[in-house]
Each structure stands twice: as C-alpha cells, then as structure tokens.
Amino acid sequence: MSTKTGRGEERIPRRFLFIVIAMTASCAVLVGLGYYIASLFSGLIMIPRTRVEDFYECGELILPLDQEVITMQVSGGGDVLLVVIAGAARGNNLLALYDLEGGAAQGPFWQREISGFRARWVGTERRLAFEDGGDIWLLDLSAGEPAPVNLTSSEGFDENPLPSPRGDFILWTTSPPGSVATEFWCMLSNGREKGYLAPWQEMVAWSPAGDRVMSASPTVSQGAEGEAGYLLQEAKVGSSGWYYYLRSEEEVRCLWWPAIDELFFVAPRRLGEEGEMRAVWFKVEPSGRVLREASTDGLGADVSSYVFYPERGGKRIAYAGEKGLEILDMGREVISRYPGLEISPKILAWREAAEALLYPGPGGIYQLPLR
Fold this sequence. Notes:
Helix content: under 10%
Radius of gyration: 28 Å
Shape: globular
C-alpha cells in the first residue's frame, strides 16, 4: 500500500523502486558484458576467414641447377624462362634465358653477365628489361640477332626497371650524380620520352591500364598523438609528383592492382589483444571505402619478409609462407595451399599459359601444375 506525504502527495511504492533499481543495474551489467564480448571477438567478426584447400602435389624438375636463383620470371607467352643466378660469372650475376618448350635442361640459349639482379619481361612480348652497370637495358628476342640496347645511358645510377602491364612504359629508379635522393622516372618501352615522375617511395604498383602508379609509404599523422600509418599516393604518367589517394592505419606490406576498380593491399592484423595473427587483404574501392576481403594464417606477424607474385591479368596472387605455397584466388574466394613443397629461396614465377607455377627447390627449378 502506498502512503501519502504531509502535503497529500502519494509516495512511489517501495517495491516499484526496488524493481527499477534492479532493472537499471542489470542493463548496465549487460551493456558492459556486451562491450567486453565485442572487444574479444570483434576481430573474428570483422576479419573474413578465407576458405583453405590443401593439396599435396609436388612439382616436376624442369631445370637442373646448383647455383642460387635470385630472380625468375616466365615470358607472357609462356615459352621463355629468365633466371638471374647469383655470383655465377666472375663475381657478377648471370642473366640466362631458357627455352621452356624446347627443353630448358639443354642449357640457356642466351646469357650475359650483369652487375644488377633485376630483370622483367615487357608486357606479353618477347622483350626483356634488365639492370646492368647503372643503366636500364632492353633485349628484343624477336630480332634476328638479339642484342641488348642501353635505354638510359645516363650519368646517374639507374636500376629497378618495372614495365607497365601492357608493356607501353618502363618505370625505373635513378640517383642523379652528386645527390643522395632517389627518384622515379618513366619512359616509353623503346627508351623515348623519358621524364621525372615522382620521389622514390617504399612500394609501387602499376594500374592495369598502365597510365598511373600507386605508392605506399609509412607516415606519422600530425598532432599530439602522432599515430603511425601508411599513405597511399598516386602519380600519373605525363605529370610529376605524388597526389594524395588514401591514408590507412594498417601496415601496408604489398600493393596489388589487378583491375581498374580493384586495388588491394595486405597488412598484418591480430584477432583480439593476444589472439591469432592473420594477414588480411584489404580492398580499396574507387570511393575510398576500405573493405576486408580475405585473410590467411599462413604468413605470421612479419608480413614484410614475404614477396608476393600476382598473375598477369588475373585475380590470383601467390606467395611462399610459413605453411607452404599459397595461392589466393579473389574470384573464387579461396586459398590453395601446398604445404609439402620445399621452396628455397622463396621465389615464384607464373606460367599462365601452362596453368602452372615455377619455384626453386633442391637441385634446380620445378614446375607445379595448378588445380
């Protein structure tokens, strides 16, 4: 029964007060518990666990080789393998080309001593760009008597040629004489129309159309907090300088641009405070929105120690991780894992024409047919 105050006002029943207090306390406990559970499992909810298919096939030895391989790539047509062998020629490296269709084991059909180690095919043609003696060279195998042509021949130190996907342009780094700065320059693949593009950045990737270059480099935001992150910037062929594209709080370790509207990067992410470490692939949409697309537990915490090999014009990217060779297929949303392969060093080469991957192993180079 309720009582009345001295002014004739009716008091609230005590039992009702107890119920209100109990309900309020219960709600507070539930809210706090909800935040706690969310903090524990937010990584599991927000990070997709990409399906993994294990395969236990091994590759076939196609090129017996005892020396250390430091660079390897198959031509766009799938018929020629370029290999750079460490210290195989009087202290220099050896750039060697092998005929995959006529029998690579017969030995190289062309070779040259080089002081550098980077070499890449230019588009899908039988042209090869490589570094040697502080210059960028081009070898055209379609010529009757293939002979390297010096494309830069500058006073600066030129290295690291990176052809555009279609082979129209070649990006490279140069250090001008008397300068400690390194710059990106760009030219047509025949060596004409050379021009300064932008200052050097840690990692770069060509757009599929070959008209732009994206870079990623570590940065620290201004202000008292000084939060670390990575800055994605874009440079356009024919202009100069980097233009702001996106700032990410993630530790970007690789850029991959397989389609105009599909720019990806990979970064390590821990599930919870002391949970599992996964490498997460993020997709940057044209609007700037960043989505989590895939993840793997096969790279561990130090993603920076791995090299990633995207296929030409496709949605697959390969890498040799802690748990074996992995091929991430963004189209099928699945990872094909080959845990039994002995890959050393961790270098891969796509041979798309044969639906295969090449890798160095005990005694030489192997070819692995893909499922």
